[in-house]
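Changelog note: in this version the structure field was regenerated for every chain. One regenerated record is shown below for reference.
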Amino acid sequence: MSRLTTRLSLLAALPAVAALAAFGWGAHAARARGVVATVGARLALGASPASVARAVARDPRLKGAYRFTDHGWIYVHLQGSPEDVGFQHGFLLAPEIADTFKAIQLEMVHNTHHNWAFFRGAAENMLWPHIPAEYQAELKGIVAGLNARGVKLDLWDIVAFNAFSELPDYYVPWYDARHQQKDPEPPTATSYEHCSAFVATGDWTKNHQIVMAHNNWTSYLEGQRWKIIFDIQPEHGYRILMDGLPGAIASDDDFGVNSAGIMITETTISNFHGWNPNGIPEFVRAREAMQYANSIASYVKIMNKGNNGGYANDWLLGDEKTGEIARFEEGLKYTKLWTSKNGYFVGSNFPSDPDVTKYETTFNPHDLSNSANARHLRWKQLMKQYKGKIDVQLAEKFEGDHYDTFEKKIDPDERTLCGHLDLSPRGAHPYAPFGAVQSKVTDSRMVAHMELIAHLGHPCGENFYAKPFLKAHPEWDWEAPVLGNMLAYPWTEFRGGEKAAAK
């Protein structure tokens, strides 16, 4: 595939990096070697060229780390021990982490009616004791990297931030029920669906190989920031290539591949309820499974160990080595695994296991006007229509699909695979700035080479502009301080170990 590559300067995000040229460093050298901080020093975001030059010579923690931009994405290469991976992450992405933290903090507090101290307390007292030492070290490393750049966030801020997909929508309802808190308004995020995905293999795909695709549904204030491609080469486990948010150690929309040939994505289970305060945080289990799984069975085993019920998902999995695909539905009390070497699995937030549906959700599988059910029907239509032809190009097309199966017409809204809730008057929160914010696809051939293709912004190619939206829908003014434009970029290939100069 021919590609147009946008090679942007790091000047806007990392002023010190661009300045390295004054010391005889070319752009490629700066990216390839990374940017390092003076040991023990706090290097501000706008540090002088002399400060950066001294830092380069004195801090080994960022050896080999680098970042570059491409079609809106920020590609970050991290490597080494958990402490070093974390430090590199926090340091290289400090401006983006500070910005994203501000947005996530506002959203969590507004949507749950709990203050930030509540979430910090949950991070310290409930989550932290159940996080394995490896990931405790990585989280501490992120804080150290941030502090080295002058960003004053601490460990409990970063742990609570990492649990943004599970604390508001899983822990908070559990907590409130036990403390008999009657909220005058339901938490905003719990009424939304998240993501459209599929995995197919055998007779269903063009080359009888696995094809996997996913688009991420979330708030636009998160979506405009969900633009990192992480290439992580850890001291232990397998290499990872995944998308994610700056500051988060897991993908969180959970699209990624590893060097053992495992390909991973998911969609959340609608209307789920359940929480185990003594379990391992979901963001930790998801990262560990992506880093250490070398088979579908080992992925399931890691995810089930210490399951806390947070961010309950239908995981769609593939193993490039065997051609096998799977749907792994993980509730809290009930889990189920389906596998196939000649078939497909789709995800649009519907539960498949009758026990999960009956005992762990309030989901109605018979309401065809419901987003999850309408999109489920659309997936089945597309799989049937294109059986034997499915490849990454069709996968890209599917993720931008605007056919509403309930209305039986093209109408981008909350019932289309490419979601546009900002265009819909329906639901608990009409015209919500929420929907499909980016998309990824890959196949067996690409996974064997640690590659994926990613699209930033609505996969259909439409742009979202914050100012006219807020003017038309002032009820969302609370997001104004952090809501920006969300532009659509071209589909762009990424691979593990990539450097900007190689494109």
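Spot check on this record: The chain has 17 helices and 17 strands. The longest strand covers residues 434-443.
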